[in-house]
Amino acid sequence: MKIILHFLFFSLLLNNSIFSQTINSSFQINKISNSRLAVKVQIDLQQGTAVLGNSVIRFTFDTAAISFNQYPIKNIDYVFQNLDSTDYSTSISLSSSGTVSINIAQISTNYLTITTNYIDIATIYFTIINSNYPLEIQPAIQQYFSPSSSNEWSLGSWNVDSTSILPVELTTFSAYKLEDKVELNWSTATEINNYGFNIERCSEPITNSTNSKAENADSTEWVKIGFVEGNGNSNSPKNYSFTDDNPNRSKIEYRLQQVDYSGNFTYSKILTVYLLPSKFYLSQNYPNPFNPSTTIKYSIPVGSNVVMKLYDVLGKEIKTLVNEFKAPGEYQVQLNANNLPSGIYYYTIHSGSFKDVKKMILLK
What architecture is the 281-362 domain classified under in CATH? Predict the structure, then answer.
């Protein structure tokens, strides 16, 4: 299908000035399916900044190639972006003569700022009738003025990109701690060819008291922990959620990998979640029995001084493993017993009012 676009538009109010700005436009086009076509409209300025005022674009299209709903429905046949409904009244209409009008009217003084970087305005959805016909969209009569003057704004360059439209417009992504779990929630405005979302997690390593560095390189790698199926093609907002039932670190980062049906993918922003322990805890060493080294893990919910000591079976103090102030979190101690004989040993912890003792066995 050949794609030809020629429409330029928009009038802007520049900081209450009548100085004419030059507006450029970009149209990102994607064939959603054999029967649907999406056109995303973007604008920017050649220089400076301005705020968006009342705007109208009217264009015609080849009805032998595509069609548009005679009574277009918002969030189904079209979606506006970055134009808050409390600040702008927006609509798209189709006249009896086949002219499409994009209508934007300001209803408050909270204006959308336009800069030299492209910003999304609207996405319009057409039905493909015959893919053998070239798609021709031609401008109709257009005039754009500042709301405070009769000065007409200038129309600049335009470009067409038929490959760069994102398959999914992610609008929100958030995380919530639910006791010992983490719930992730996200929403999309529109979806094109969306297979689904891989949920990936990166955990901050548990601090090693004998070495403050990471346990190993794998501890900081992104790991897939789940998948949520997408909605394929959708013009309406969709909500998703996923629960991480086993967040195993005090600091965790999450991201979404959105995948389309062709295997292409994009990443979301990264969310960081801090999961502080809810209580004091001393774990059983592992391995146990051991030779010659073992690991002891513990957690503290509040900052306090931590003292951990090792005793033999007769109660004689052998070694101080920890004696320092610790912030809330999870920690681990590596014990090397190369110089100790086989036998039963005890390790104790004292932090604030919390005390505990565990038994370990060294077998050589």
Answer: Sandwich (2.60)
Note the pTM of the prediction, 2 decimals: 0.43
Domain ranges, ordered by start, for the chain: 3-161, 168-274, 281-362
Q: What is the DSSP string of 173-190?
A: EEEEEETTEEEEEEEEEE
Encode 125-136: b = buried (16+ Cβ within 10 Å), e = exposed: bbebeeeeeebb
Give CATH for domain 3-161.
Answer: 2.60.40.680
H/E stretch holding 25 reads strand 22-31
Look at residue 9 and tell me whether its pLDDT is greater than 50: no
Looking at CATH, the fold of the domain delimited by 168-274 is given as Immunoglobulin-like (2.60.40)
Cα–Cα distance, 139 to 141 (Å, whole number): 7
Contact (CB, 8 A) for 219 and 260: no
- How many Å apart are CA 330 and CA 251, to the nearest integer? 10
Report the candidate in 186, 197, 62 with the shortest Cα–Cα distance to residue 136.
62
Backbone phi, psi, residue 65, to 5°: -105, -45
Q: Residue 306: CA atoms inside 13 Å, Cβ hemisphere, count?
A: 26
Q: What is the pLDDT of residue 291?
A: 92
d(CA 27, CA 81): 14
The vertex-161 CA angle with 156 and 162, nearest 5°, equals 145
